[in-house]
Amino acid sequence: FSSRTLWRFGYSARLLKTNHFRTAASNTSFPAVWMVLAQYSGRIPGLSVVVKKISFSTMPETVEDKANLELYSPHPEVRGMTLLNREAFKRTVVVPVLKVKKEIVNRLLKSLKHMLLQRPGLKRVVEDPEDEDSRLVILDPHKIPEFSLGESEQEVLKQLNVCPEVSKYNLELTYENFKSEEILRAVLPEGQEVTSGFSRVGHIAHLNLRDHQLPYRHLIGQVIIDKNPGVTCVVNKTNIIDSTYRNFQMEVLAGESKLVTKVKENNIAYELDFSKVYWNPRLSTEHGRIIELLKPGDVLFDVFAGIGPFAIPAAKKKCHVFANDLNPESYNWLLHNCRLNKVDNKIKAFNMDGRDFLLGPVREELSKELPILKEEQKTSFHIVMNLPALATEFLGVFRHLLVGEPCSTAGLPTVHCYGFSKHDNPTKDIQERAEASLGTSLDGRCSTYLVRNVAPNKEMLCISFQIPADVLYKRPCPGEANPASKRLCTSKDFSEEKLLS
């Protein structure tokens, strides 16, 4: 299988390109590759995630799966329900129970923990209507074939002096005992995709429902509130993020229409209006990864800063931060979160177009700092451009952004530019787009990191590179008497000078 296939399941292709893995995989038949993955699990970070997530649709449904669906399905009459009626989900099922003296119940529960019935909100021990000194312990019917215990379980009961006879018990399951996926699977038309996953933003659950799920959207929203403590508002995105300000239209499906919320990411608190600014909780790891690259004293230019998930932790790390966002709402929440985290005196915030920010404050700061940067100084300059739909198009701004000669190539700014790709080779695709904007090759001068799989055949990546000196600098021509002259040389002028000398 290709690196791209593995990437879709949240796994970095670079980690798989080790010599040991390549050798093992190349000499192994396809079905056995999973054994190779399991063998390397724990030695290659993240591998266990891949093994857990990947499954094959051709795998036959087991008898136990079918039994689970039958036993743990709500009443069939709920099919097609669009207005939630919790009472309609009641169902009585027959389950095995053991009669146990109440003084040894706790010991039995510990000894037969793996045999007990596990259901949300379900009591595993109930009173015995025929004997007040006894209790009925509910067992999982899928682990008690034909209501008969195995030898090992019978031995445990013998030691506890408990009768091994298994009885049948009519158990009433209610709405509270079913999981959200089970409820939605029972309600939506058979064979259609069930949505139970969502993004959590403070007290808000954010869904992206498909067309066939829309008639059930209010029911889906209420089920999510019922089954997820702390969620009090459920919204569904009603259009793609195509606006200038990177927000989207949304519909409140259930709960309170309160869209100002609080979130915590990497131990830093943020407040925001989810309807007016961009926030994606799936980028938490990426925010942390970039911050790890920074050292105290470094300079960070955040071109599309949003409410500050790069800028604020960088400032807390004692970096010098210049943060910008075009959206006035994002800018205001950025200022608010700077005050909230007590870094408002460490961040210079701007409300400008990204190009104007690069041509203005960024150029001014680099023009001031780079000429005086000494070789032994450890300060690094980082430029983060997290606008995946368009960021690569902004890279052309770096062409001859500065005038003069670099004092130290080590001090050249490092760019972290994000982009989406639907290409078969997303790494090659984003590099070629970056090169087209910069007007130079980045072969051997860049690294690419897969951030996440956004949708089928759509990846989000980050390409990082130091801006080449011949791209960033527009040098005064050789022999020019006035360095401030408007006439500036090109790389061709320098080549000719070297030939003449």
TrEMBL record:
One annotated GO biological process: mitochondrial tRNA methylation
InterPro entries: MeTrfase_TRM5/TYW2 (IPR030382), SAM-dependent_MTases_sf (IPR029063), TRM5-TYW2-like_MTfase (IPR056743), TRM5/TYW2-like_N (IPR056744), tRNA_Gua_MeTrfase_euk (IPR025792)
Gene Ontology CC terms: mitochondrial matrix
Keywords: Cytoplasm, Methyltransferase, Mitochondrion, Nucleus, S-adenosyl-L-methionine, Transferase, tRNA processing
Residues in SAM-dependent methyltransferase TRM5/TYW2-type domain copies: 198-469
Pfam families, alphabetized: TRM5-TYW2_MTfase, TYW2_N_2
Catalytic reaction(s) noted: guanosine(37) in tRNA + S-adenosyl-L-methionine = N(1)-methylguanosine(37) in tRNA + S-adenosyl-L-homocysteine + H(+)
Alphabetized SUPFAM superfamilies for the sequence: S-adenosyl-L-methionine-dependent methyltransferases
Protein family membership: Belongs to the class I-like SAM-binding methyltransferase superfamily. TRM5/TYW2 family.
Role this protein plays: Involved in mitochondrial tRNA methylation. Specifically methylates the N1 position of guanosine-37 in various tRNAs. Methylation is not dependent on the nature of the nucleoside 5' of the target nucleoside. This is the first step in the biosynthesis of wybutosine (yW), a modified base adjacent to the anticodon of tRNAs and required for accurate decoding.
Protein name: tRNA (Guanine(37)-N1)-methyltransferase
UniProt organism field: Aptenodytes forsteri (Emperor penguin)
